From TrEMBL:
<keyword id="KW-0411">Iron-sulfur</keyword>
<dbReference type="Pfam" id="PF13370">
    <property type="entry name" value="Fer4_13"/>
</dbReference>
<comment type="function">
    <text>Ferredoxins are iron-sulfur proteins that transfer electrons in a wide variety of metabolic reactions.</text>
</comment>
<dbReference type="GO" id="GO:0005506">
    <property type="term" value="F:iron ion binding"/>
</dbReference>
<protein>
    <recommendedName>
        <fullName>Ferredoxin</fullName>
    </recommendedName>
</protein>
<dbReference type="GO" id="GO:0051536">
    <property type="term" value="F:iron-sulfur cluster binding"/>
</dbReference>
<keyword id="KW-0408">Iron</keyword>
<keyword id="KW-0249">Electron transport</keyword>
<keyword id="KW-0813">Transport</keyword>
<dbReference type="GO" id="GO:0009055">
    <property type="term" value="F:electron transfer activity"/>
</dbReference>
<dbReference type="InterPro" id="IPR001080">
    <property type="entry name" value="3Fe4S_ferredoxin"/>
</dbReference>
<keyword id="KW-0479">Metal-binding</keyword>
């Protein structure tokens, strides 16, 4: 099972994740990204691309509670 976390304390609101995986991420009113309810159902390659493209590296992906190494 995939789990997605966004460390909003370092999100800069670039919206890169929303552009790459719009079914998983949303830009909140506060100007930082959050995840949508069915984010984990998004194609894994898009989640991976979004996480790797995040300029502040604040997206973490987990499979079965184990963090996936992105870099
Ligand atoms: S790509 Fe990263 S920094 Fe940009 S909005 Fe998404 S989570 Fe925030």
């Amino acid at each position: 099972m995939i789990k997605i976390e966004v460390d909003q304390s370092i999100c800069c609101g670039s919206k890169m994740c929303v552009t790459l995986a719009p079914e998983a991420f949303v830009l909140l009113d506060a100007g930082m990204a959050g995840t949508l309810p069915h984010a984990a159902d998004s194609p894994f390659d898009l989640l991976l691309k979004a996480a790797k493209s995040c300029p502040t590296q604040c997206i973490a992906l987990f499979r079965d509670d184990e963090e996936i190494k992105l870099y």
